[in-house]
Write a structure and sequence with these properties.
Length: 148
């Protein structure tokens, strides 16, 4: 079954993508939740026309994201965490803390657009976070976890 996504889904794709999913997943979850619509021939035709009309707006959004990315590349973040004597963090560092540190530096970014490259941050050290500003623009931001 082919569906047209109405919103971004990290496991499937971005909004306005036409993706192939299993019949039950589309019929029982995506379409009733309003996440996607069935990709019939007429729906695909309307979809392609809408994409043509939005192309100019998307270029502006992409160029704004590229400008924002150049500003973000130079940002260095330091996160303080309570640690044991061996350097292990009590808990872990997550995207909320990274978003808060970016907000302190003047960059308002939704925490859902941030992912940490490593599996988990549970020790003092240097790590990398990925910020997805646009479907084609992803910025790597290095951050350091220090002991408080």
């Amino acid at each position: 079954m082919e569906v047209i996504l109405k919103q971004d889904m990290s496991s499937l794709g971005m909004a306005d993508d036409i993706v192939k999913v299993k019949d039950g997943y589309g019929r029982n979850f995506l379409i009733p939740q309003g996440i996607a619509t069935l990709a019939t021939a007429s729906a695909k035709k309307m979809h392609s026309e809408n994409l043509k009309q939005r192309a100019h707006k998307q270029e502006k959004i992409k160029s704004d994201a590229a400008d924002y990315a150049t500003k973000l590349k130079d940002v260095q973040i330091t996160i303080g965490a309570k640690t044991s004597t061996s350097g292990k963090i009590f808990g872990s560092v997550n995207t909320i803390q990274i978003a808060d540190m970016l907000a302190q530096k003047g960059f308002e970014i939704d925490r859902k657009k941030i992912s940490i490259k490593e599996d988990s941050v549970k020790e003092v050290g240097k790590y990398t976070a990925l910020v997805k500003l646009h479907r084609e623009i992803i910025v790597e931001i290095p951050f350091e976890v220090i002991s408080e």
